[in-house]
Design brief:
Helix content: under 10%
CATH architecture: 3-layer Sandwich
Shape: globular
CATH superfamily: Rieske [2Fe-2S] iron-sulphur domain
Low-confidence stretches: none
CATH class: Mainly Beta
Order of helices and strands: EEEEEEEEE
Mean pLDDT: 95
Number of domains: 1
Largest sheet: 6 strands, antiparallel
Number of strands: 9
CATH topology: Rieske Iron-sulfur Protein
Number of helices: 0
């Protein structure tokens, strides 16, 4: 497992109902972090249906979902599972933490 954390933003820049993106320079993955009622969740910033950034879509904090603007696939931001067609495969979930005044995420895939 890679033990390199990627800085996403200052904690104050990611308020409930907001999302922020970053690029993991070690693994090359895009990361999108969601603040869902004060809890942070991180996913790979890539729709599992077709290669397109999830962060371009809408984050619905009321339902805890993000929708890909390309074809309307929705994913649960808490665990990355696909909620409707055309996506059937989950999006990779990443570790996320608050440390100091920052938000950090890590791509744990092998």
């Amino acid at each position: 497992m890679i033990d390199t954390w990627t800085y996403i933003c200052a904690s104050a820049e990611l308020l409930p109902g907001e999302m922020k993106t970053a690029f993991d320079e070690v693994t090359g993955a895009g990361i999108v972090v969601f603040n869902l009622d004060g809890d942070l969740h991180a996913l790979e910033d890539m729709c599992s249906h077709e290669e397109f950034e999830l962060s371009a879509g809408g984050f619905d904090a009321a339902s805890g979902t993000v929708e890909c603007v390309l074809h309307g696939a929705k994913f649960d931001v808490r665990d990355g599972r696909a909620l409707c067609a055309p996506a059937y495969t989950p999006v990779a979930k990443f570790a996320v933490k608050r440390e100091g005044d920052g938000v950090w995420a890590r791509d744990d895939r092998d």
